[in-house]
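[agent] plan:
  1. take the single chain provided in the ticket
  2. run structure prediction with default settings
  3. attach structure tokens to the ticket
  4. add a short note for the reviewer (M.T.)
[agent] executing step 1
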Amino acid sequence: MGLLTKLFKDPIQDQSSVNHSFKEAVARRRSIYAISKDKIVSEEKIQELVHHAVKHTPSAFNSQSARVVVLFGEHHDKLWDITMEELRKIVPADSFAATEEKINSFKSGYGTVLFFEDQSVIEQLQKNFELYKNNFPIWSQQSNGMLQFVIWTLLEEEGLGASLQHYNPLIDAQVQKQWNIPATWKLIAQMPFGKPTAPAGEKEFKPLEERVKVFK
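[agent] step 2 finished; step 3 output follows
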């Protein structure tokens, strides 16, 4: 069981150890681009983690507007084939080699998580709470970002590397057609994952004094 799963499921355990573990998990989560199809975590386990994250990640007005599709095997490969062909239409042929290499690196992974927001839920909230009408799309994106982070960190806890990609809206129509996605689901992001084959690069941090202000 991953540390974040423990944190959600066992709220009455020793909080000092839990908080320490959670901080470590947050720090370890990185963008991993070198991944393989080697199966180190079962599909059932990944499905369990995704279900847990979708259920417990907060949303504005408890709207629960996030939707997720998990692709394995030939479905995962098909997503990146679609992405490759859509990019081929807009990227000049003489510079396509780098693009092809990048997309193949995502395809080399074990699976992909697709993140969506159900626009019908957001539109209904806008009708019900007109005072906040302009905020619901913003809050929807914020909640989806939290869901992406939770799933990303849970995958890391299982030893999987992942990165976050945004080939929407370029691939939206083909994704909707290929997997019969409801028309109201808006594609937000794609997260390819797999067994890491190389570590993340060094990460630089700006001084926290420039980013955080505390008044007491």
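[agent] step 4 note for reviewer: The CA atoms of residues 164 and 191 lie 5 Å apart.
[agent] ticket updated
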